[in-house]
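S1.2 Input.
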Amino acid sequence: MTAPIALTCGEPAGIGPEIAVKARHILGADLPFFWMGDARHLPPGTAHRLIASPAEAIAVPPGLLPVLPHPFAAPATPGQITYANARGVIEVIARAVRLVQQGQASAICTAPIHKKVLKDGAGFKHPGHTEYLAFLAGVDRVVMMLAAPALRVVPVTIHIPLAEVPRALTPALLEDTIRITEAALRRDFGLSHPRLAVAGLNPHAGEGGAMGTEDLRVIAPVIEKLAAEGMVIRGPLPADTMFHPRARAGYDVAICMYHDQALIPIKTVDFDGGVNVTLGLPFVRTSPDHGTAFDIAGKGIAEPSSLVAALRMAHQMAVARGL
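S1.3 Output.
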């Protein structure tokens, strides 16, 4: 039997605790996972059972949330920052990595963190969640994929100003991103011949150089090289015609040149069901595609769909890896 999934608590004052409870109600015992955190941070009255090891989560009745306890410094009030808890959030992530590396968990699903809280409260030195996981795993390069049933997208450049994208978009970065993505589609998604569509950087993919030369100088040569190796890849394609239903049927992933080129289409196609997947790690990691949502935390209205999708995808990827 596949080991249960480790669900980290994320920011305890955000919506993470309440959507974890909702996800358990939706998934029941069909998809075993356990929540890692301080039970004091769960919504009042949450039916839960403390477990001493991940393996115990499998036998917990579906009406109870399995909790692998991790003590935090202070209680949490929804929507209110408590810097004293920042260290606990970081410790839970590191503990989850150890569990998956030991085979006690099949995958990690991470609830959203608040990077500024971690930085100000615990001196967190990493740009974000993904970079910290890569550091813990000893990996130099990972790739962010946003995935939903109708669309998968990978941004080559991510959280940088748009003006810096042309300089950051190098042949080496593009080739590395594509290779990691193609390998992950084979290993984690069971696609024997993944089909990759690569967006152009400029309008109309540069229109032969009339609207910028990056598509001809940077993107096209990489695609030609990889296609010559046997990869099923095409582009650069005009981004404005890549995301309608007929176009999406022709590929398994869209490689995009910058953040919004990737995230706007997937959030339009499936706002609630998108999953953040980290490719290139030696273990499976998924996350809901939203933030801590301090403004609605504790009100009972947080939508758990993205977390449910993230847990399901983590399970599917773990099974694909034979875990």
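S1.4 Remarks. The CA atoms of residues 264 and 271 lie 10 Å apart.
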